[in-house]
Amino acid sequence: MFSNAEAKALSGYLSLIPSVKSRYYTEEVRRRLAEIIKAVSEDRYTAAEVKELQHIAKLIEMEWRETGREDLLDYYVKLTMLIAILFAEGKLPLEEYLRGWL
Q1: CB-based contacts of 60: which residues, under 8 Å, 6+ apart?
Q2: Where do the domains of the chain lie?
Q3: What residue ranges in 1-102 does DSSP mark as E strands?
Q4: Is the model's pTM score more than 0.70?
Q5: Per-residue pLDDT tens for 18-40?
Q6: How do residues 68-95 score in pLDDT, each as one tens digit?
Q7: Within 13 Å, how many C-alpha atoms sit on residue 17's CB side?
Q8: Residue 64 and residue 67: Cα distance in Å, rounded?
Q9: How far apart, in whole angstroms, are the C-alpha atoms of residue 30 and residue 93?
């Protein structure tokens, strides 16, 4: 089981957002990611923002697959861990969480 403190620590790491050089992971996506990560670190995020993180994670994965950028792969893995922690905190129903990944 993960705690709120672990989610905050991970979101602190994730506030170091990779640079943009992409067609999927755009500057607009990077800015929105920064906003949501800040909300998570301040414990004021919503279920809709967690869903948005899932979408952003998919964009980062697509960008990694196309470019092979290792920094994006590392960030993607940690971002998906954060999403799982936030889900475990109960802010997102299981059906919605799984719908984003299946």
Answers
A1: 18, 24, 25, 72, 75, 76, 79
A2: 4-99
A3: none
A4: yes
A5: 877 778 889 999 999 999 999 99
A6: 999 999 999 999 999 988 888 776 655 6
A7: 20
A8: 5
A9: 26
